Amino acid sequence: MKMLGPWISAFLLLTGVAAGPLPSSPPSQDADEREVRALIGQLDSDDSSQRNRAHQELVAKGRKILPLLKPYLQSPSAEVAAQIRDIVARFERDERLEHSFPPLKTVTLPKGRLTPAEIFRQVREQTGLEIAPYGLSMRDPVEAGWDRAPVLRVLDDVCRQMGKGKPEPPPLRARTADEFDDGSESSPESSGNRIRIDGESKPPCAVAHWNQFRAAVDDVVVTETRGLQNSTVEAQLTLSLSSQPGIRPIDVGAWEFEEILDDRGKSLRNEGKIKVFRGGRPESDPEVGDSLDSVWFTLDRHGRFAGRFGAPLPITPPSPEARRIARLKAKVKVTFALQDITRVVKVQDMRDKGGDAAPFGRAAIRFSSPELKDNSFRLHYVLTGAFHGDPALVLLDKDGNEIRALGGGSNSSGAEHQRHWYLNGTSDVNAIRVSAWIGHKTIEVPFEFADIPLPSEP
């Protein structure tokens, strides 16, 4: 019986039957709770500076205090309830953002000589990413030695040492309508986990990395046009953006050159603004930061995007004596969604009510005048409110399955829009599905390059 004593005591402790009270929480936890509740009390202070300070201190404590905050959403004080609602919304927004912005995957390998085959095997084991090289000699050793280095940087280092090979991670492009799943959140891994390496290409002129992102200078072109009276010189630089697999933003802005100097000290920065078009309309990039109620529609189901990637960017021609771009600092804004929303509007409701609306926060779409005739479906809709892009409309049959169209067209006049689809057969259109992203967070991704070679002859 003596051997059972410890087991019985342990059981009594776990079930709370043991004699003597158990502490409900560690003393430090009690102190944290008292501090949080004290700060919540300060949210109702007559002193606005004290309210603001308490708000900031609660935000700084992070999402771990959510269980303590939520009961105060029903506070009899309107001021406290409003402030707590704002903090809770912020914490929930940050949690949703993590689904769009997966953690950085890094590689650690000690110094020494390893073959690319061995390095790529370690990359797969440490990150779960599959490296798919072709046209490379996998047995020629290169110098290893990385400590928590981003996986794309490791691949660029291997290719640079070999003098051939170009990593081809998925291009950074905006998410499409196809990536909605009836309102459920999209998986950040949905875009695959494979990175190809083109061993038949030379490494880019220059590469730079920032966290999950990679920028490459693919080419620099200087063109001189000579005439009988005069000659002109133009220059352009091709800059592309990619990322670790799994990064899927809703928008990528235009490149901005902060500084670009040749090795003679001449600034090559072109002061012209690169316009960004969304839904056929020029729009400025969103500001760095976040918005809880912004509305973003997809441009179309084929995933057009606003960013100019792999496209030539104009720069001022370098000095005739220059041989290199000594320094290039560039940045680009990348925007991530906070929440996916999908609405389904029945065609019969449009007919019965003379129209039916799909609300999306600050925006709405009102559908009317549906008509199915001669294998062609037509629809009128009005877009109201504040939004980015244009909605992608998906036709559904009575079972909720997508109806594939053979083509179609549209015309618009301000907020008024007309759409038509050519159908394959006589499918009856039962409903329209439309999706949007509500809320966003925009970050600014900076890159810095050095010693980019210029073409030897203009």
Protein model, in words:
This protein is an alpha+beta fold and 458 residues long. Among the domains are: 31-100, no CATH class; 341-440, Immunoglobulin-like, CATH 2.60.40. It contains 8 helices and 22 strands. The protein has helices at 4-15, 27-42, 48-60, 66-69, 78-100, 116-127, 151-162, 347-353, and strands at 106-114, 130-134, 142-150, 166-168, 194-198, 206-210, 213-226, 231-243, 251-252, 256-262, 276-278, 281-283, 289-297, 311-315, 324-346, 356-360, 363-373, 376-385, 393-396, 405-413, 416-423, 431-453. The strands form 6 sheets. Strands 9, 10, 13, 15, 19 and 22 form a 6-stranded antiparallel beta sheet that branches. A 5-stranded antiparallel beta sheet has the order 16-17-18-21-20. The chain has a 4-stranded antiparallel beta sheet with strand order 6-7-8-14, with helices on one face. A hairpin with a 2-residue loop joins strand 11 (276-278) and strand 12. The longest helix is centred in the first third of the chain and has 23 residues, at 78-100. The radius of gyration is 29 Å and the shape is globular. The model is unreliable at 1-26, 180-191 and 300-308 (pLDDT under 50).
Sum this structure up briefly:
The chain has 458 residues and is α+β, with helices and mostly antiparallel strands. It has helices at 4-15, 27-42, 48-60, 66-69, 78-100, 116-127, 151-162, 347-353; strands at 106-114, 130-134, 142-150, 166-168, 194-198, 206-210, 213-226, 231-243, 251-252, 256-262, 276-278, 281-283, 289-297, 311-315, 324-346, 356-360, 363-373, 376-385, 393-396, 405-413, 416-423, 431-453.
